[in-house]
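Propose amino acids for all 200 sites.
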C-alpha cells in the first residue's frame, strides 16, 4: 500500500531531492541559499517554511544521499546466503554505482566527513554514525563467518572491517578526484582479494 504524503511532506521531499547533488558537490559551506532557490524554483520563505535553516536541509539531504547507497547495499546483503557472499555484496554494489556516485559528486559520507570534521558538529556526527554502523555490520558478518567456519579463526574482525571500508572510501575518492573509474575497479579487486584471504 502506497503511503500518502501531505503537501508539506511532498514539498520537503522535493527540496531534498532537488538539492541533493548540489550539497554533495559543494558541501554545506559552499551551498548558498540562492543555490537552493535556483535548484527548487522556490522562494526563501518556502524553503525556510519547511526547514528551520540551511543546516536542517543539509542533514536531510545527507540522510537522503546516504540512503540511496544503504538501500542498495542492504538488498544485496540480504540476498546473499553465506557470510562470504555478504561481504562480496559490498563489492558488487560499489561496482554498480561508482559512475553514478562520481556524477553525483562522490560519496556523501566521505564528502561530509572531510568538510564537516571541524566546521559542523551535527553533520560530522551524522557521517561518523554511518561509518560506525557500517563497521559494526561488517564486523558482525565476519564474526558470524568465523563461527560458521567460513572464515579463518585467527583474523581480527574489526581490523578487516575497517580495511574494507577504507579501501572502498579511498577508491571512491581517487576515482572522483581523477575522473578515472578504473581506479575503483582495481581497488575493489583488492577488496575481493582481502575477503578471499580470510576464507577458510
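Proposal:
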Amino acid at each position: 500500500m502506497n503511503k500518502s504524503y501531505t503537501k508539506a511532506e511532498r514539498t520537503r521531499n522535493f527540496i531534498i531531492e532537488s538539492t541533493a547533488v548540489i550539497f554533495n558537490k559543494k558541501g554545506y559551506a559552499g551551498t548558498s541559499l540562492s543555490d537552493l532557490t535556483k535548484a527548487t524554483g522556490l522562494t526563501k520563505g518556502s524553503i525556510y517554511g519547511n526547514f528551520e535553516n540551511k543546516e536542517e536541509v543539509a542533514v536531510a539531504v545527507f540522510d537522503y544521499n546516504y540512503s540511496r547507497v544503504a538501500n542498495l547495499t542492504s538488498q544485496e546483503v540480504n540476498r546473499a546466503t553465506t557470510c562470504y557472499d555478504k561481504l562480496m555484496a559490498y563489492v558488487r554494489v560499489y561496482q554498480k554505482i561508482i559512475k553514478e556516485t562520481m556524477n553525483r559528486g562522490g560519496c556523501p559520507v566521505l564528502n561530509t566527513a572531510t568538510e564537516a570534521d571541524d566546521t559542523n558538529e551535527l553533520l560530522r556526527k551524522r557521517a561518523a554514525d554511518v561509518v560506525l554502523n557500517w563497521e559494526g555490520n561488517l564486523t558482525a558478518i565476519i564474526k558470524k563467518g568465523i563461527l560458521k567456519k567460513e572464515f579463518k579463526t585467527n583474523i581480527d574482525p574489526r581490523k578487516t572491517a575497517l580495511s574494507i571500508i577504507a579501501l572502498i572510501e579511498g577508491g571512491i575518492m581517487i576515482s572522483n578526484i581523477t575522473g578515472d573509474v578504473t581506479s575503483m575497479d582495481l581497488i575493489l579487486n583488492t577488496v575481493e582479494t582481502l575477503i578471499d584471504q580470510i576464507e577458510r
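DSSP finds nine helices and no strands in the chain. The longest helix spans residues 121-147.
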